[in-house]
Amino acid sequence: MKKLVVFFLSLSFGFTFSQETDSLKIKELKEVIVVGTKSQLHEKQSKTLASVDEFLQKSTKVDLIKRGAYAWEPIINGMTTERTVITIDGMRIFGACTDKMDPVTSYVEVSNLSEATISSGQQGTCHGNTIGGAINLKRSQGKFANKGWDFTLNSGFETNNKQKIIGSSINFADSLFYIDTDVMFRDAENYKAGNNQEISFSQFRKLNLSTISGFRFSNNKIIEASIIYDKATDVGYPALPMDVSLAEALITSLKFDYKPISNRIDNWETKLYYNTITHTMDDTKRPNVPIHMDMPGWSDTYGIYSKVNGRLNKHDYMVNLNGFYNRSVAEMTMYPSDPNENLMFMYTWPDVQTIYSGIYLEDNWLINCHSNLKFTISLGMHSNNVASDFGMQSLQIFYPELEASKSRFLKSISTNYSYDKNGLQFGGGFGYGERAPSVSEGYGFYLFNSFDNFDYIGNPNLKNEQSLEANVFLGFKNSKWQAKITTSYFHINNYIIGIPDLSVAPMTIGANGIKIYTALDHATIWSNDLIFNYFIHDNWTWKGQFLYNIGRDNKNEGLPFMSPFNYLTSITFNQLKWDAEIILKGNTTQTEYNTFYGEDRTPDYAVINCNLGYKFNFEKTKIKLNTGVENIFDIKYTTYTDWNNIPRMGRNIFLNLMVQF
After folding, report:
1. Which of 148, 157, 257, 590 is the most buried (most CB within 10 A)?
2. What is the pTM assigned to this prediction?
3. Collapsed DSSP state (helix, strand, coil) of residue 206
4. pLDDT band at 543, cuts 50/70/90?
5. The domain containing residue 546 runs over which residues?
6. Strand partners for 309
7. Dihedral pair phi/psi, residue 106, rounded to 5°
8. What are the distances in angstroms from CA 555 to CA 245, 519, 526, 597, 600?
9. Reported confidence tier of residue 145, pLDDT bands at 50, 70, 90
């Protein structure tokens, strides 16, 4: 296996640095993962009914923390969701779970997703302040066209966890009206790691419904309504001490789109949205529980944004006024084994109400046909209010002078230069950004973290986290190959992390102690990635991507979830109705780990996947059949992002069928 890895990598680097160059389009530090459209049947995808998490893993900027087989937490540039912004069609959504079991990405399905836009660092501040970057999940939607009705059926099966997938979509469009509806259902049992080891409590069941409808008032005025309903039940989390009996989301929006008859304004889009999340953690199916607990959580968000895009001479500009109100509540009730003892109750999120209002300005100046300069600035007012008197009294045990409300002013600014001529592309930029502490960091109360086995308590007196950022990229392209290398450096002041406090006793039975969120003087993160394509023949392509991150705190100790050298290389074949791919992926041993944050040494691994697809056309009916084998050699392995070293899935054979008529 190691000889095979070396062979793949040596060929990859050889192809990357041995060819001539041509021209590339000017690009920013953004990456777009194209999932597909319903009319295309996701034809470019090797596994058409993969989860959204599996699609996001194709990005060099994104990795995912896995606590089970469902709802993985995205991290960007090695930074978790506190330091990033994740939106669906520009809408802010906040999970209702104190243990991050319900990331925003879990509430969409690949069948209604067209693309995911990943922005690095301060390039991602359009919808809110961020440090690490942003992900915007854009759903598929119809267009006004006289094409009438079309229908799609989806079906899939995976052998490892016996996952059954079934779904359908019904779409209609004419010159004045369109409606897209989509439903997807997944049901999976426990999966097996390498060597046929069953991973208990890794099952899940999920239903997703999505509808988007648009009406054209005139040639330049459109109104659009959207609803997502997502319900997951019986979700196991083998890396955590609790499972989830219910994760339910209702996400709605109403958008008005106006295209003025003007040379200076291209589009004016205004959206009102509302979403509500209910999440219930459950341990009733776990054996030998010291004390039974119920841990429900709720999150409600009301939001609005109004975005204008236009052009003035050589300047493409955007103005986005945006704001939201969020209410986050989480409870914990403990049931003693002795029924004569009283129940124990507390707020883990004490009804925290957050109001944000901000403005984002962007100017993309086309200096000449080869270069451009982009400026962005974001200003926002952020306010928290603890509405629960009982929750306030609990926090005042640690912070006697605590006031119910706290306001912050958040700032972000960046500039990036890009050059593109004769196949040479390069550029770079600088940025400064701030973020407010998350609800858990500011107001969390005895939140158990099973990764380092500590209870966590929030700190409402934390300062804004501040990031200075620099980035550089260099690319080449010609008719045979293309390559691009990117590096980003972040110097983060007031870096928020949990620090042990020996004066406070833990509440969780068996916990190592208490950590209170504290701001370190600074921390640094260096993120590097390389991607390339080599066109071997008209139908054959060699692809590769490589990633490496380094993170250090103020004591020069490692930060958690920093990627060791990570690689993915593949050969793809596409000809008329056939497509095929063989993939090698893995990473080296994680030696830059820090036991203080709960990490340990994870060994190197390499797995091979392969897939095959074929398209059928029968008059107006299109059929796409995909099959493949993941982890062909049934390797048992774990990675640096696997919570508590939970092993990954072993050999898995999948079959996906999509029919459109």
Report:
1. 590
2. 0.93
3. strand
4. very high
5. 2-660
6. 267, 318
7. -80, -5
8. 41, 13, 16, 13, 18
9. confident
